[in-house]
Amino acid sequence: MVDTTDEWITTRTGIKERRILKGDNQGSSVMAIQAVKNLLAETQTDPRDIDLLICATITPDMPTPATGNLIAHAVGATNAFSYDLNAACSGFLYALVTGAQFIETGRCRKVLIVGVDKMSSMANYEDRTTCILFGDGAGAVLLTPDQSGRGLVDSMLQSDGAGEAHLHQKAGGSRKPATHATIDAKEHYLYQNGRAVFKVAVSKMAEAVEAIMHRNKLSAQDITYLVPHQANQRILSAVAQRVGIGMEQVMMNIDQFGNTTAATIPLCLWQYAPQLKPGDRLILTAFGGGFTWGAAYVVW
After folding, report:
1. Is residue 1 part of a domain?
2. Most-buried pick from 24, 90, 142, 191 (CB within 10 A)?
3. Over the stretch 129-176, which tens digit does the pLDDT of each residue have?
4. What is the torsion angle, in degrees rounded to the nearest 10, for the CA atoms of residue 164, residue 165, residue 171 and residue 176?
5. Is residue 215 part of a domain?
6. Is the same domain home to 137 and 176?
7. Which residues are annotated as catalytic?
8. Which of 193, 190, 147, 188 lies closest to 166, judged by CA?
9. In this structure, what CATH number is given to the domain that contains residue 204?
10. 8 Å CB contact between 119 and 130
């Protein structure tokens, strides 16, 4: 499709496979609904007991209604209020922290956090610098109150709108609605200045992880796993090196799924869950367009 090879892709990104959702009327909600149904079954949770569902996505099924509403309806979460949250690749992290706030205030007792993106819907398959990176996927977690000290212990979230120039989708929003001209100019695809994003992503994720470790008096040896957004293997390696964490302590599945944006962190948690033990210390971190970034300390 583009001028590239398996070796070129693998050596620069670590990606060997990606999943693509195909077919008519197949939006992000299709994947998210299945992820949530799997989670409800695994945790033996009645969907009517869910108080809130937050869907982190930059590829909603449509501008309105919110994809979160579609998911809640499809899974039978009839007593939940739901909405979408857009923080690009940091979306799951932002949604996780937001959902935890509702529990901490006592407003909710059971909160579903979903990270989902159908990146194939905004990837330009004539641009080898971006189309090789992105895949489609969804992951979900359930938040409930806990008094034992486990769960989400600490977090920090940050953003800087100056990053717009380096990572954006130019057309399709209210500033530049869709026209024949915008479509012909291919302005509905994701644009990324890879070098600029790489540099800032490594710096900001490392700074966020170090801040969380310092604030909670954690050394690299105290961390069971670093759970980074699966952007690019080189970025993950650079962040781990900066914070002094060995690659054996880094959750990685970018080789199987590529960059699924808001879905990468929950997909990692899902894959690694069988080998995690209560009390394991995890630091989640992400960086996304906007720019958005942050980190969270979670005790499993």
Report:
1. no
2. 90
3. 888 889 999 999 999 999 898 999 999 999 999 999 898 899 999 999
4. 80
5. yes
6. no
7. 89, 229, 259
8. 193
9. 3.40.47.10
10. no
